[in-house]
């Protein structure tokens, strides 16, 4: 691997120094304000909740938010939502670890972490999402609880965002920690906490968890109907609709799928699809980027529905999604642990599909790098030291794919073909290149939509959700380091985390 001997020692020193950058001092006041006292203050000035709600969003991109050892572990795969997007993409086998020089993700790539209830990899997402839930419940409690009468628009908007964030967290937990996803509805999968006053709550069924998720999102959609958010960091009604579409598609009744179509239509009326010039890098004869709107690094991209506006004040460096994924960032992907696309998935991308150019079979790194999809604009290897490239959480193209999937699952092949061709028209130079879609029906069409979901959303943390929804097996391609060619069913133990063993110590009622 290019210059690896030079980089390893220097990078190891940098990683050690960076891990010591935060003191983790207790900055909480010695005299805590009670919920009742905070309720009274918020009645006088609802804007006092700004900090709490902003903290919910900050947690999504801060490092070490899944740490369960009071700041002592500091794993470099622990950096909020995008960290677990990598986890889930690796579980779905579409994203793989190209080398094991630093060790991050090795046990996940081996499918060992999912079966080890004592591993930090198993505990981190559980800890992170319940941290989000606790913070959301704190806002809800201060506003008077789940069934509070809300006095004005400000408090309605805070409540709507808190309930949407709580639902978001439960939805990801319900996918990552439930082998069958929704399953029959009777499987006990998670404890439901809807107030900070609850403790030692027993497991609830998947039906109960999804009822809570969908109820929260329905309420959020209503509460945020007239909310004009200050930026795309915040959840508004369109984000709530997108999250609700995902939850309904996962539960998957005919009534749910009908709602998915309506919800995604509403979002697509607001947000355009990602354009060809935004999807892939175009380089001139000297290798210089000619379309700076590409790179999936700018929250201002019109198709982005939800994301994080990362600035220098965000204080992100090598412990970040960009650090783990982008060779143009000074971190792991560049220095020795690149991430590749599964070669069988790459081969399935048609030659005239512009998304084929998102990946570079780079001999210096030994595999299919996503250098045409995710990259820092300067495109200098190891160049971005302090992260200012943004994080994407949701974009309009997801809604087209969910819409097409819902239609084919309902038996509306014609509607599904029309929908998926809206996306493919942006990915192929000619309609003749995707005319084959018109010949597909039934399960063949469903499989094609699933394939297009994997291609379009590669590296964005959405393939795992589609795998669980569609009850689809995964097969590791020939370029994986471990378990090459092996196939795993969607509900195999290797593909789903188990409830962390430490949780049973804290909660004696946590039995299945």
Automatic annotation (TrEMBL):
One Pfam family named in its UniProt record: SusD-like_3
InterPro entries reported for this sequence: SusD-like_N (IPR033985), SusD_RagB_dom (IPR012944), TPR-like_helical_dom_sf (IPR011990)
Signal peptide: 1-17
Record's keyword terms, sorted: Cell outer membrane, Membrane, Signal
Residue stretches making up the RagB/SusD domain: 370-476
Subcellular location: Cell outer membrane
Domain SusD-like N-terminal: 102-230
Similarity comment: family membership: Belongs to the SusD family.
Name of the protein described by the UniProt record: RagB/SusD family nutrient uptake outer membrane protein
Source species: Mucilaginibacter panaciglaebae
Source species taxonomy: Bacteria, Pseudomonadati, Bacteroidota, Sphingobacteriia, Sphingobacteriales
């Amino acid at each position: 691997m290019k210059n690896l001997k030079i980089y390893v020692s220097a990078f190891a020193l940098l990683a050690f120094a960076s891990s010591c950058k935060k003191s983790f001092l207790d900055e909480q006041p010695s005299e805590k304000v009670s919920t009742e006292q905070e309720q009274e203050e918020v009645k006088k000035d609802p804007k006092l909740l700004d900090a709490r709600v902003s903290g919910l969003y900050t947690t999504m991109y801060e490092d070490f938010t899944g740490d369960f050892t009071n700041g002592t572990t500091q794993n470099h795969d622990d950096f909020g939502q995008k960290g677990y997007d990598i986890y889930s993409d690796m579980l779905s086998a579409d994203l793989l670890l190209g080398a094991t020089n630093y060790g991050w993700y090795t046990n996940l790539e081996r499918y060992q972490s999912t079966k080890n209830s004592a591993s930090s990899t198993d505990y981190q997402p559980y800890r992170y999402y319940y941290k989000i839930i606790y913070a959301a419940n704190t806002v809800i409690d201060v506003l008077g609880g789940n069934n509070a009468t809300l006095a004005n628009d400000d408090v309605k908007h805070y409540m709507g965002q808190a309930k949407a964030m709580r639902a978001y967290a439960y939805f990801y937990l319900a996918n990552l920690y439930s082998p069958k996803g929704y399953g029959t509805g009777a499987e006990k999968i998670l404890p439901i906490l809807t107030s900070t006053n609850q403790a030692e709550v027993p497991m609830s069924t998947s039906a109960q968890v999804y009822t809570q998720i969908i109820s929260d999102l329905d309420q959020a959609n209503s509460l945020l109907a007239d909310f004009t958010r200050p930026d795309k960091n915040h959840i508004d009604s369109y984000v709530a609709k997108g999250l609700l579409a995902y939850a309904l598609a996962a539960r998957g009744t005919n009534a749910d799928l009908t709602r998915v179509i309506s919800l995604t239509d509403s979002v697509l009326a607001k947000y355009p699809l990602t354009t060809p010039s935004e999807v892939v890098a175009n380089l001139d004869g000297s290798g210089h980027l000619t379309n700076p709107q590409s790179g999936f690094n700018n929250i201002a991209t019109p198709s982005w529905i939800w994301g994080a506006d990362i600035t220098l004040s965000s204080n992100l460096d090598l412990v970040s999604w960009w650090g783990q994924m982008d060779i143009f960032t000074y971190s792991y992907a560049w220095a020795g642990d690149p991430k590749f696309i599964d070669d069988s998935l790459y081969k399935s991308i048609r030659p005239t599909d512009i998304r084929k150019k998102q990946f570079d079979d780079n001999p210096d790194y030994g595999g299919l790098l996503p250098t045409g999809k995710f990259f820092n604009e300067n495109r200098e290897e190891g160049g971005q030291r302090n992260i200012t490239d943004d994080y994407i959480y949701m974009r309009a193209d997801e809604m087209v794919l969910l819409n097409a999937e819902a239609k084919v699952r309902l038996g509306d092949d014609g509607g599904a073909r029309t929908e998926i061709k809206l996306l493919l028209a942006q990915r192929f130079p000619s309609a003749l290149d995707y005319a084959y879609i018109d010949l597909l029906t039934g399960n063949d069409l469903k499989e094609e939509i699933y394939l297009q979901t994997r291609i379009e959303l590669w590296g964005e943390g959405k393939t795992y959700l589609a795998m669980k929804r569609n009850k689809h097996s995964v097969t590791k391609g020939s370029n994986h380091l471990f378990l090459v060619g092996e196939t795993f069913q969607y509900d195999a133990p290797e593909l789903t985390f188990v409830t962390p063993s430490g949780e049973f110590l804290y909660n004696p009622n946590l039995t299945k």
